[in-house]
Amino acid sequence: PCSSHALRNWLPERYAAVANFASEKLGLTPVLVGGKSEMENAMAAAIRAHLRVQYVDLVGKDTLKQLLAVLARADVVLSPDSGPAHMAQALGTPVVGLYAATDTKRNCPYRALHLCTQHYANASLQFLGKPVEKLRWGQRVEREGVMALISVDEVCALLERAASGNRLS
Asked: With a threshold of 0.85, does the pTM exceed it?
């Protein structure tokens, strides 16, 4: 659930709400993955505090090679702008991407635009006071609260769409 930039991370209670939905409505088992950093462990703990369904917790327990195996076997991956999102896409696993701080059209995994949130233009106006067309290429909107533009309902709809679709060949 973490990017290398903390301000690109979604809210833990919203991750948990989506994980609860995925389990209860879609029959999926949520799997938390992440590294051993303090940020990733804190995020995982905050998510776990809001989960009411069974899940698998691999945060800080897997290697990069094992992460690739998990991503390859996943039905769908939910991730902010991060390396594992691109790795999952490369393996053919559908990715629901969480984008507000960075431009979806520039940063989301290849072939996953239809499964990514697209709040960069709203974030540009709300947090920088400029239309997206006035930003320099690649400019980020890494501001406190930017990821709160992404709603649980929006992500659940994207997750449902991804889980019901066909995997990439």
From this structure: yes
